[in-house]
Structure of TetR family transcriptional regulator:
Amino acid sequence: MKEGAKERILHTAAELFYQQGYQATGINQIIEEAGIAKASLYQHFSSKETLLTAYLQNTRVCNHEQRMKYLEQLAPGKERLIGLFKYRLQHMQENQFRGCAFIRIAYELPHLNEDAQLQINTHNQTIKALIASQLQAIKDPFPEASLTEWTDMLHNLYEGAGLQGYLMKSPKPVEDTINIVQKLLATL
């Protein structure tokens, strides 16, 4: 099926924002590489910021779908929690350790518009909800205060391992974190 103008714009912007950064990517470059007219871009996206928000939303939804497709093959609970970290490692390696799209944008644009920030926050909440649901699959009922503590702790390990892996351009931080998480989960 032929990709429409909106999809071409979004696909091109996604590649450019991820490869060279949001600020280094100009509207004219997106128009040229997408092979569309300027009017077509503005028909679908009222501004570069609107395009950024669409990029983050599309990235969030696609990443979550791919993550869940991977995790649904695993048993609920400990296996899926470890799988979450293994999926992150696989994703990092597939992207040559170029970094998380959300972290890259948040770092590049510390004063994000509200809609773009909402996409980043929603991404984080989705990961935390996934972690919490898998903790509850291990131990039900999981005391609420303990569930919140464990969820936050595992989320911080997940994000920290990812960030260190990207900074070091190495799988080692995530591999080490997988070992730590396995040991932590063995205590439940």
Observations:
- The chain has two domains: 1-46, 47-186.
- The first helix runs from residue 5 to 20.
- Residues 1-46 form a domain with the Arc Repressor Mutant, subunit A fold (CATH 1.10.10.60).
